[in-house]
């Protein structure tokens, strides 16, 4: 029997990430090759003509899975009955800025869009916030949409997770798919902590700890971490624009694994509402290792945390607490 289409909202759809992600969604990269979709695209009035151009291109691409397109500048219309909301709309940072520098512009957008989602989205809509500062925007969205279950509001740290996998696979000269279970802890910012202490690599003699195979703690504890933390800035420096194809691809990975499940024996990183696991204060959207099954994520429990990791996990939590109060002051 033909499956009912899933309605997927992309905000900021006329922007760079929007332009990269909508064809991925329409081709089944996000929800699988047998799941029809209806795309809802939102942007603001100055981008209306460009948004219409994207709509025309989607028609011209004749995607078999694409059963409809809503392209609008009306947030209420955009949110109507959506099952998945990918929140990309906002202002990207430019060279020399930290992600929290776009805070005042972006948190007010997330406050406003929270109520539209709450009123109009389908029950159990899954929300992924991509726009920066991603964790804090997601927290604001959560606070202003009290009827959306907190488990349904997440932010994107999968790009950082994938960047970490990329760095390890490059260093070991192995396929990226042979490396798994890195962790991004904390904020999607330069304080994030990319942790390889539980990561493994598949070798000809079986699965081995990444730390043992890399055999260079000095590199793993310094250059590897800063490369992942600063990768967004390096892309901005090179492209004069922030990451878009990798961000779009990571957003598809995030939703796909959340909806369809993570492979047995592996986890991914997602920014989720802290339940106090690993001593991280509740009331923050913090990136944890998670597994997903039947459309629900769960934090991987019981991993051993050494002193080095503890300090880094606490430092990024501290930054999120500061961002939270800065965000609240921007909204006053
Ligand atoms: N979490 C992550 O891993 C990543 C996050 N980002 C963030 O994603 C966001 C989007 O990046 P780009 O696509 O490169 O930016 P962009 O500037 O190309 O596109 C953003 C779009 O959002 C639209 N927009 C602005 N206000 C809006 C509103 N109130 N409602 C709907 N749409 C609105 C703009 O008109 C524009 O078309 C930025 O905040 C960027 O920093 C970027 C890369 C990775
Ligand atoms: O760095 C930025 O501002 C864009 C972003 O979030 C990333 O590439 O990780």
Q: What does this entry look like structurally?
A:
- This is Malate dehydrogenase.
- It is a single chain.
- This protein is an alpha/beta fold.
- The chain is 42% helix and 20% strand.
- It has helices at residues 16-26, 48-60, 75-79, 103-120, 134-143, 158-172, 210-214, 217-221, 223-229, 231-239, 245-260, 307-331, and strands at residues 6-11, 37-42, 66-72, 84-87, 126-129, 153-155, 179-180, 183-185, 193-195, 200-203, 206-209, 268-273, 285-293, 296-299.
- It has a six-stranded parallel sheet with strand order 3-2-1-4-5-6. A three-stranded antiparallel sheet has the order 7-10-11.
- Strand 5 (126-129), helix 5 and strand 6 form a beta-alpha-beta unit.
- Helix 1 (16-26) crosses helix 11 (245-260) and helix 5 packs across helix 12 (307-331).
- The longest helix has 25 residues, at 307-331.
- It is globular and about 55 Å long.
- 1,4-dihydronicotinamide adenine dinucleotide (NAI) binds at residues 11-12, 14-18, 42-44, 47, 88-93, 109, 130-132, 134, 156, 159, 188, 242-244, 247.
């Amino acid at each position: 029997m033909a499956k009912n289409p899933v309605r997927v909202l992309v905000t900021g759809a006329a922007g760079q990430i929007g332009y990269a992600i909508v064809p991925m969604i329409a081709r089944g990269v996000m929800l699988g090759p047998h799941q029809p979709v209806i795309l809802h695209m939102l942007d603001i009035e100055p981008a209306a003509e460009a948004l219409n151009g994207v709509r025309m291109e989607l028609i011209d691409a004749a995607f078999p899975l694409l059963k409809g397109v809503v392209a609008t500048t009306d947030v209420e219309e955009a949110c109507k009955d959506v099952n998945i909301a990918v929140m990309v709309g906002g202002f990207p940072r430019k060279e020399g800025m930290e992600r929290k520098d776009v805070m005042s512009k972006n948190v007010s957008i997330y406050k406003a869009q929270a109520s539209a989602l709450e009123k109009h989205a389908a029950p159990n809509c899954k929300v992924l916030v991509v726009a920066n500062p991603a964790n804090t925007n997601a927290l604001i969205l959560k606070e202003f949409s009290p009827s959306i279950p907190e488990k349904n509001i997440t932010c994107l740290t999968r790009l950082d997770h994938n960047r970490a996998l990329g760095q390890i696979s490059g260093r070991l000269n192995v396929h990226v798919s042979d490396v798994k279970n890195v962790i991004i802890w904390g904020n999607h910012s330069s304080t994030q902590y990319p942790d390889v202490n539980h990561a493994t690599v598949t070798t000809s003699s079986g699965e081995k700890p990444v730390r043992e195979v890399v055999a260079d703690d000095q590199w793993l504890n310094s250059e590897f971490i800063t490369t992942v933390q600063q990768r967004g800035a390096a892309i901005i420096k090179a492209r004069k624009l922030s990451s878009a194809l990798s961000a779009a691809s990571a957003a598809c990975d995030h939703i796909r694994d959340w909806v369809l499940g993570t492979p047995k024996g592996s986890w991914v990183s997602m920014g989720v509402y802290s339940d106090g696991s690993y001593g991280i204060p509740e009331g923050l959207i913090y990136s944890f290792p998670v597994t997903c099954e039947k459309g629900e994520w769960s934090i991987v429990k019981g991993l051993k945390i050494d002193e080095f990791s503890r300090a880094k996990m606490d430092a990024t939590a501290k930054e999120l607490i500061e961002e939270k109060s800065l965000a609240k002051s921007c909204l006053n």
